[in-house]
Structure formats: structure tokens, C-alpha cells
Design goal:
The protein is mostly helical. It has 2 helices and no strands. The longest helix has 39 residues, at 5-43. The protein is elongated. The termini are far apart.
Length: 66
Amino acid sequence: MDVNPQHLQEKARQLQENMLPQLEDARRNLEDMNTRVVGFIRANPGTCLLGAVALGFIVGRIASRR
């Protein structure tokens, strides 16, 4: 199978042009979700701490069974 560097370069350029808008949308969505999560944690620190303790307990119980 013969690989042409120009062909590979063109394919890479097409892939970048097609994927870049989707990657930017995903980045913006993740930043928005992070902002909302941080806001929730700052507004409800006790609830988040209790949830983290409960989750840690459950994971510990599952891990100790093995």
C-alpha cells in the first residue's frame, strides 16, 4: 500500500476543518457545565460534602468485597 504524503496532509486538513467546530462546541458545553457545577457546590457545600462522603462509603464497601 503506497502512502502519499500530500494525500495524508489533505485528509488531515479536511478532518481538522470538519472536527474543529464540533470540538469548539464541546469545549463551550464543558465550560458551561463546569460553571454550573461550581456554582451549585458554592451554593450547597454541605449537601455536596455529604454526597461525597456517601459516595466514598459506597465505593469503599464495593472495593472491600474483592
